[in-house]
Design a protein that fits this description.
Number of helices: 1
Bound molecules: zinc ion
Order of helices and strands: HEEE
Number of strands: 3
Shape: globular
Distance between the termini: 13 Å
Radius of gyration: 9 Å
Strand order of the largest sheet: 1-2-3
Length: 41
């Protein structure tokens, strides 16, 4: 994973639009721009 994106995720911020992220069943979603990422176990 991109290190820059990791830093955003650590802070709970969308790497795309910088809004707050929502966590859903192992995935991270942005309700503002639709960005999402699921964690690979
Ligand atoms: Zn976003």
């Amino acid at each position: 994973m991109n290190e820059e994106i990791k830093e955003f995720l650590k802070q709970g911020i969308c790497p795309n639009c910088k809004n707050k992220l929502a966590h859903k069943e192992g995935c991270i979603e942005c309700e503002f721009c639709g960005w999402s990422m699921c964690e690979e176990a």
